[in-house]
Amino acid sequence: MTATLVHVKVKPEFIESFIDATRQNHENSIKETGNFRFDILQDMTDPAKFILYEVYDSEQAAIAHKQTEHYIVWRDRVANWMAGPREGIKHSLLFPRGN
Q1: How far lies 61's CA from each of 16, 19, 28, 38, 44, in Å?
Q2: Per-residue pLDDT of the chain (99 residues; tens, 9 = 90+)
Q3: SS3 label, residue 18
Q4: pTM to 2 decimals?
Q5: φ, ψ for residue 37 (rounded to 5)?
């Protein structure tokens, strides 16, 4: 299994729009083959900071996610709302153990 934490800083005037667009991406991403988690986290001390926590059963499934229509729509829609480039950090999922 592979997990990615995507760190995003959003311009304050776009926070609500970002949340709405990201909710739509989330709702479609959790239906993807190979997806185990697609959580959206908002920093409690800085509401402009978000983490997208994505877990897929394989690197191929994670790559396939970036080829879906809903991801491409999300990526293009939110690009100008970000205060800087998003940063995706890949992790190996140790626990719970995958199949």
Answers
A1: 29, 24, 14, 13, 31
A2: 999 999 999 999 999 999 999 999 999 999 999 999 999 999 999 999 999 999 999 999 999 999 999 999 999 999 999 999 999 999 988 888 755
A3: helix
A4: 0.92
A5: -150, 145
Structure tokens at 62: 């994670």
Q: Which residue has the tokens 């900071």?
A: 49
CATH number listed for the domain at residues 2-91: 3.30.70.100
8-state DSSP, 81:
G
**Run of H or E including 95:** none
Contact 56, 36 (CB under 8 A): yes
Per domain, the residue ranges of the chain are 2-91
SS3 68: coil
DSSP H helix total and E strand total for the chain: 3, 4
